[in-house]
Amino acid sequence: MHLKPIDVVESIDKASFQEQYFKPRKPLIIKGLAKEWPAYNKWTWEYFKEMVGDKEVPVYNNIKSDSYTPINKADGYMKFGDYLDMVAKGPVELRVFAFNIFSEAKQITKDFIYPTQLVNNFVKRFPLLFVGGSGSITHMHFDIDYPHILHTQFLGRKRVLLFPYEERYKLYRKPWEVLCMADYSNYHEGQIDLDKFPAIDRANGYEVILEHGDTMYMPTGYFHHMEYIDSGFAMSLRILDPNPVTVVRGVWNLFGMRGIDNLMKKTMPKPWYNYKQKKIQNAAAREL
């Protein structure tokens, strides 16, 4: 892989953000944005336990989906407070993925401010929380609804790979899915199987380690792979793309592509998987 660092700023004005990053769809790290929020110091394990510790949440392990697995199928359920106790104590390969904690405790929304001084069109109904124990992994994918994302890390560090959508064939993206066939787990230790997935070596992307308070702007359609170095949590604020074609594509992914894929996995999983694998390898071969 050809990886470069993401641009980093302490702060940025709207004109610069729009012209240099939002419109050209280029990622950015903003160091100072979340420091203005009460959440910067207020959000702790104990605080979330007090607010929503009794709520049951889905949890996800590190195992990649197979030919039978629907997108985003939970691996289990547990009380959020019990999960936080487990994560805070040490390494655990379980994540809480896209939890709308704010619908359960609306007062938490007062702890942050939507940065409308940079961009508009926030999807304010769906600020989402992501929690992971040290060693947990979010496998390479793009967000199915095609939003722009402002992703702010709280507590702990997280290693992130980013690739623009145009690199999808080199990444071995599965047809009809948001996920990739290749496994990027512990990529920084040289564990990617380049004999099986050689086109990955030509992929052009970005790498960053997010720390407490860092806000990462991730443009629409970007593939991302995340590994929790420490136990921690992050919040994503979603932004609708101003291009209606992109919005329609996101709706299709949610209600068309995903439905067809889940149906095929249920009715003919092995032939469907084999079809995808052939398409993936042919697309990657063209990149080589």
CATH architecture: Sandwich
Strand content: 15-25%
Strand order of the largest sheet: 2-3-12-9-14-7-6
Structural class: alpha+beta
The total count of helices amounts to: 7
How would you describe the shape? globular
Give the rounded overall mean pLDDT: 89
- The number of domains is 1
Output the CATH class name: Mainly Beta
Distance between the termini: 13 Å
What is the β-strand count? 14
Fraction of residues in helix: 25-40%
Radius of gyration, taken over Cα atoms and rounded to an integer in Å = 19 Å
Low-confidence stretches: none
CATH homologous superfamily placement: Cupin
Largest sheet: 7 strands, mixed
In the CATH hierarchy, the third-tier topology is known as Jelly Rolls
> What string, H for helix and E for strand, traces the elements in order?
EEHEHHEEHEHEEEEEEEEHH
